[in-house]
Write a structure and sequence with these properties.
The chain is mostly helical and 270 residues long. It contains 13 helices and four strands. The N terminus is likely disordered.
Length: 270
């Protein structure tokens, strides 16, 4: 969160480190809601233009609005009129861009879910700090990035600071998914569809006909269709197949247990 009168950090640099990236994010996401939007967005673009041009910028100038519009058309991938963390990573020249490095390793939601399953070893629905360190180590090795123990610790701490909002030393699935490119983050599609504990239990029980504690891919298909129709959300068959594939990445040999589906669909822990 930015302090009044504080100068925008690091925008003048040719490259920014992971820690400097976090400083920039916190400065402009003034209300801490996970987006740079509204007045925050105008301030960010003004300071970015000033840093790059080396001169002051007047937001009341019509050309400022036009340039800002062009800027958003280029970087606002999901066209929601605000900048998310993964979009900011495309804007800033990052020295060792571990966010882009992450995308090279986990380029789709299905790969992300599969990676999540490998590292959420206790199936808690969270990656603990020690699990996160292993996750990032694997990521860097697969991307052929050189790192030492201190750099790995820096990356781990930076991601925790970015996403561990309640300071409990662990990250939830939806928090980690913010590292994905916006268009690949299928969890965003379920915003507004999240279920309470009671709603989730009722719908899972309905589709788990034999009460064995898991559902299969066909049952998941029917469940997702019902969920979308209930929430009056549009979907097409191609998107639905993609979401289903992502969720089934959490399954055990085609068996999707209650706990795995809860991570995606339930807004509270059961």
């Amino acid at each position: 969160m930015a302090n009044k009168g504080q100068q925008p950090p690091h925008l003048h640099l040719a490259e920014v480190t992971a820690c400097q990236f976090l400083d920039i994010w916190r400065h402009f996401d003034a209300d801490g809601n996970g987006y740079i939007e509204g007045k925050e967005l105008e301030n960010f673009f003004k300071e970015l233009e000033t840093a790059r041009r080396g001169a002051g910028v007047d937001p009341s100038n019509p050309t400022f609005r036009e340039k800002m519009k062009e800027f958003m058309q280029k970087f606002d991938k999901n066209k929601d009129g605000r900048i998310e963390m993964s979009e900011l990573a495309q804007i800033l020249p990052t020295e060792e861009n571990f966010l882009l490095c992450f995308r090279q390793f986990v380029s789709s939601s299905a790969e992300f879910m599969a990676a999540w399953r490998r590292y959420d070893t206790d199936r808690s629905g969270y990656i603990e700090a020690n699990e996160l360190k292993g996750f990032l180590s694997d990521l860097l090795e697969k991307a052929n990035r050189h790192y030492d123990e201190q750099k790995l610790l820096d990356y781990t701490q930076t991601i925790l600071k970015m996403f561990d909002l309640n300071g409990d030393g662990k990250l939830g699935l939806s928090e980690m998914a913010r590292l994905l490119p916006v268009q690949e983050n299928f969890l965003l599609k379920f915003q507004g569809c999240k279920l309470t504990c009671e709603q989730f239990s009722a719908i899972f029980t309905h589709y788990d006909k034999d009460g064995n504690g898991y559902i299969d891919e066909h049952e998941l298909d029917a469940l997702l269709r019902d969920l979308y129709q209930t929430n009056k959300k549009d979907y097409d068959q191609k998107n639905l197949e993609g979401y289903k594939k992502c969720i089934m990445s959490l399954s055990d040999a085609g068996k999707l247990y209650r706990g795995e589906l809860e991570i995606v669909l339930c807004r509270e822990s059961i």
